[in-house]
Automatic annotation (TrEMBL):
<comment type="similarity">
    <text>Belongs to the LysR transcriptional regulatory family.</text>
</comment>
<dbReference type="InterPro" id="IPR000847">
    <property type="entry name" value="LysR_HTH_N"/>
</dbReference>
<feature type="domain" description="HTH lysR-type">
    <location>
        <begin position="2"/>
        <end position="58"/>
    </location>
</feature>
<dbReference type="InterPro" id="IPR036388">
    <property type="entry name" value="WH-like_DNA-bd_sf"/>
</dbReference>
<keyword id="KW-0238">DNA-binding</keyword>
<keyword id="KW-0804">Transcription</keyword>
<dbReference type="Pfam" id="PF00126">
    <property type="entry name" value="HTH_1"/>
</dbReference>
<keyword id="KW-0805">Transcription regulation</keyword>
<dbReference type="InterPro" id="IPR005119">
    <property type="entry name" value="LysR_subst-bd"/>
</dbReference>
<dbReference type="InterPro" id="IPR036390">
    <property type="entry name" value="WH_DNA-bd_sf"/>
</dbReference>
<protein>
    <submittedName>
        <fullName>LysR family transcriptional regulator</fullName>
    </submittedName>
</protein>
<dbReference type="Pfam" id="PF03466">
    <property type="entry name" value="LysR_substrate"/>
</dbReference>
Length: 296
């Protein structure tokens, strides 16, 4: 009989594909975790991982992982639904995004209207969002780049051009537009790997057989404009960033490429039972006047 703890431990190993790191995250002894995985494989009658060198989830493991995620997600959703039906608590909504600066306006409005609701924010890379929604680890996701749509529903929030920011004294600062080829030798300040801004930069350059010269990458996305203004380099910036009252003084130049844009989209699981708190947040975010927002 499979135990819930064993299934949860399997999901961690499947995600990390590394026994010692999984054991550290779970705060278990590695031999104990190895025995748990071995028992699952014995019960299923097939290996779940390839062990030739590095641990890798095999096809059977991927199939089992998908079913386990859905099963545990449904169990958690059932608990939340029972609590909601019984009137226990005031509700929790779990929102994942690549950045929360863009969402500060609707989040503040939601909290003012529903002060007793607990909002749990989770940073998530886009490649992990679909899995987390299908597993019901989160209720809603906001992505600035495409994510797999199977099993999801979505609504586009807004689309905007992404330009390049330069220091005010930069030779490009007076231009009305600039091509990607003209940016090839420029030093770039950008976000860490996986962030939509970094991925867009890499896609634009790769399409032309180029590699961006990155001189600074930061987790503090709000600091990018300050670093550009200080003369450390140039960097991509969404149009909405220019509306920020606290924006550092930089020149913003449109990029002459139809691909230099982002579409911000709200996603949720097509089969998920959204709690009332999450349904309310979906309404607030999807109905927000993004043109009047002043966040970046």
């Amino acid at each position: 009989m499979m135990e819930l703890n064993s299934l949860r431990q399997f999901l961690v190993v499947a995600r990390l594909e590394h026994l010692s790191r999984a054991a550290d995250e779970l705060r278990l002894a590695q031999p104990s975790l190895s025995r748990t995985i071995a028992r699952l494989e014995s019960e299923l009658g097939t290996p779940l991982f390839d062990r030739g060198g590095r641990l890798r989830l095999n096809e059977s493991g991927r199939i089992f992982r998908d079913h386990v995620e859905r099963a545990l997600g449904e169990l958690d959703a059932g608990r939340r639904a029972v609590a909601e039906a019984g009137g226990e608590g005031v509700g929790v909504v779990r929102l994942a995004s690549e950045t929360f600066l863009t969402l500060s306006g609707p989040l503040a409005a939601y909290k003012r209207a529903h002060p007793a609701v607990e909002i749990a924010l989770h940073w998530s890379p886009p490649e992990d969002m679909a899995r987390r929604l299908r597993a019901q680890e989160v209720d809603l996701c906001v992505a600035s780049q495409p994510i797999p749509a199977e099993g999801l529903e979505s609504v586009a929030l807004f689309e905007e051009p992404v330009g390049v920011g330069t220091p005010l004294g930069h030779p490009l600062a007076g231009r009305t537009s600039v091509t990607v080829d003209e940016l090839a030798d420029e030093p770039f300040v950008t976000a860490r790997e996986g962030h939509w801004l970094r991925r867009l930069l890499e896609r634009l350059f790769a399409a032309r057989g180029l590699t961006p010269r990155i001189v600074c990458e930061t987790d503090e996305h709000s600091a990018i404009a300050d670093l550009i203004s200080a003369g450390l380099g140039i960097g991509l910036a969404p149009a909405i960033a220019r509306l920020s009252a606290t924006q550092a003084p930089v020149a913003w130049i449109p990029v002459d490429s139809p691909d230099c844009r982002r579409t911000v989209t709200l996603h949720w699981g097509a089969q998920n039972h959204l709690p009332a708190a999450a349904r309310l947040m979906r309404t607030v975010i999807s109905g927000w006047d993004w043109g009047a927002d002043s966040t970046a």
